[in-house]
Design a protein that fits this description.
Distance between the termini: 26 Å
Helix content: over 70%
Shape: rod-shaped
Order of helices and strands: HHHH
Number of domains: 2
Oligomer: single chain
Low-confidence stretches: 1-14, 182-186
Number of helices: 4
């Protein structure tokens, strides 16, 4: 099998999607070349078989076989050249597919980084909203409720328990997120909610980028 030296595919100008499209087109071209050569080899093999059959008939008849031998040789030479070309094309197609895989991995990595940064931006706004409009009032409510419970009046304690449950239900209805069924816990704690979000360091550790082909 001939050795094909890997040449970096040119990186098309433009943004991420333009570069990715360039690698997709390059992979498609090499695959199309493999398909075309495969078809030509199939036809060439038929031609060789026909030439061999014709030569066999002439040999059986005892007639001159010079032309038949020459025809067979040309058919065999063409098939050998096509097979060599197919081997080279298959290697190029494999390298192009590897380049495309790396480009797709790089695109996914960049997209994930973008979404993680967006998560942090949104979460920071949620932190500010909670701090400004929810956490203070809830903390004060809890403090006062604890004082009321200190009077040890069962009916009032039951009403406070109902109020807590109602708050959890409204919180769940309002945020419509998995995990909100835990009530106030996702929003009220010692650490800001944004600290619980994935970080770019997590991305680099768990989903490292593949070096994009030059």
């Amino acid at each position: 099998m001939p050795f094909v030296k890997k040449s970096p595919l040119p990186s098309p100008a433009g943004g991420l999607m333009d570069r990715l499209k360039g690698f997709q087109l390059a992979a498609g071209r090499t695959q199309a070349r493999v398909a075309a050569l495969t078809s030509e080899i199939t036809e060439a093999r038929r031609t060789v078989a026909q030439a061999e059959e014709h030569l066999g008939l002439q040999q059986a008849d005892g007639t001159e076989t010079g032309d038949a031998l020459e025809t067979l040789k040309r058919a065999q030479d063409r098939m050998a050249a096509l097979e060599l070309g197919l081997s080279t094309a298959q290697q190029k197609a494999l390298l192009a597919q590897q380049d495309l895989n790396r480009a797709e991995q790089s695109a996914r990595h960049d997209r994930l980084c973008q979404k993680v940064e967006e998560l942090h931006s949104i979460a920071a706004r949620v932190d500010r909203t909670i701090a400004d409009t929810l956490a203070g009032d809830v903390s004060r409510w809890l403090s006062v409720a604890t004082e009321v419970q200190g009077f040890s009046i069962p009916e009032l304690d039951n009403k406070l328990a109902s109020a807590r449950s109602l708050f959890k239900i409204r919180l769940l209805d309002g945020c419509q997120m998995p995990g909100c069924s835990t009530g106030m816990a996702p929003f009220i704690g010692t650490a800001p909610w944004s600290d619980a979000q994935p970080t770019l360091d997590d991305v680099e550790r768990l989903f490292p980028p593949s070096r994009e082909p030059a």
